[in-house]
Amino acid sequence: MHGVSEMGSLAERIRQGDSAAETELVHQFGQRIFVMIFVRTRDREAARDLVQDVLLAAIIALRKGQLLDQEKLAAFVHGTARNLINNHLRGQAQKPQFEDLREDLAKVDSSNEIEDAERARLVEETLEGMRRQDREILQMTLVEGKKPGEIAASLGLTAEVVRTRKLRASRKIAELLEKKMSRR
Questions:
Q1: Full set of structural domains in the chain with CATH
Q2: CB atoms closer than 10 angstroms to residue 50
Q3: Which residues are CB-neighbours of 25 under 8 A, at least 6 positions away?
Q4: pLDDT digit string, tens, across residues 16-30
């Protein structure tokens, strides 16, 4: 174990950008931090990941000169470890606990529902990109069931214009849906 003044020197060397000092910090604290994390988490993989996170956070903070008393390097590194461990454990506690599905629920095929919802979302997206009057024509035709003549009268257009715009808008939606759904 290094003495107190050696710890201060190590911290200062890291602050100055000495990569050998960073490597020394990793060798000095890596194993101890791993043990500390493993004891708290009981998860070897999480401990390995968290060791990397702790050492990286400590080195970045040291590079920025965030350690005010360089003689307290060990306490700083262990405090960083403690904070990241606590964050990890809080995150684990907030994850939902999953239970196995009952067999009758596990057999439900929701792919059609998912595709239908995705299609509806894409249609809405496409409609938002259309001109207001084209959306109105589609609304009156498909939802309200009105004929082109009725729509033309209410919008001040000819029935032929209504039919043409309805056809173009319908094709546009179909093409965009086909394109977007084929990418999935």
A1: 4-94 (1.10.1740.10), 126-177 (1.10.10.10)
A2: 23
A3: 10, 14, 55, 58, 59, 62, 77
A4: 999 999 999 999 999
